[in-house]
Specification:
The protein has helices at residues 2-35, 42-61, 63-79, 84-96, 100-113, 120-133, 137-150, 155-167, 171-184, 186-199, 203-218. By secondary structure, it is mainly α. The protein starts with a helix and ends with a helix.
Length: 221
């Protein structure tokens, strides 16, 4: 009986020791993860806050401000390539400095990481244009609408939205967008309609767009 009791005690102690070792192993793993720079580490948080402050100052300063902080933004994006916001900052800097193609590449990196990351007006227009060029019409419409939510009446966003809605066969929405563009910038509207007329392969569609352009030129309601 005593032997069975001692065996049971040893088994209990062994189980407790094993559980403690497992727990210690888990704690060491967590500490190891946090020591590696990344989205969950303190190093990332500190760098992200610093970059955010620099970008806010650059936004107020204009192109010269963005040029000054570009090396820090690039370094942050290189260290933390899974941070979508880092790529957004990089895209804004490139846009401010006239590097539209480089800005679009950075923007694509951001959207690949987070399709719903906030872009702001200029990057939303850039995203809409890129999606339009690749004939990704639902995404083009989404980004054009986002641009218009930031700056209602923006003619570039209205034109991109109209093209996307037309390709998606959303005729009533496209007509509403066209009327808005017409009221905001009749000349831009007429140029768009004329372009659509001469690029159309359908005589019916060509006549339709030319009629719309003539109506726009006359200022018909």
């Amino acid at each position: 009986h005593c032997a069975k009791t001692l065996l049971a005690c040893f088994q209990t102690l062994f189980s407790l020791q094993l559980a403690m070792l497992n727990r210690l192993h888990q704690v060491v793993e967590v500490e190891s993860d946090l020591s590696v720079p990344g989205p969950l580490g303190a190093d990332f948080a500190s760098s992200a806050r610093s970059i955010e402050r620099l970008c806010l100052r650059a936004e107020r300063a204009g192109p010269s401000g963005w040029e000054e902080v570009l090396p820090q933004i690039s370094e942050h994006a290189s260290r933390f390539p899974t941070d979508a916001q880092a790529w957004i900052y990089l895209a804004r800097a490139k846009m401010a400095l006239g590097g539209r193609r480089e800005a679009y590449r950075a923007l694509q990196e951001a959207l690949a990481l987070d399709g719903n990351v906030y872009l702001g007006h200029s990057l939303s227009v850039l995203a809409a244009q890129g999606c339009s060029d690749m004939r990704k019409w639902p995404l083009a419409a989404k980004h054009a609408e986002a641009a218009l939510s930031c700056r209602p009446g923006d003619v570039d966003a209205l034109e991109l939205l109209f093209r996307a809605q037309s390709e998606l066969m959303e005729r009533s929405k496209a007509q509403e967008t066209l009327q808005t563009l017409r009221s905001v910038n009749p000349q831009r509207c007429m140029s768009l309609l004329t372009e659509l007329a001469y690029s159309s392969h359908s005589p019916v569609e060509r006549h339709r767009w030319l009629s719309e352009a003539v109506s726009c030129a006359r200022g018909d309601a």
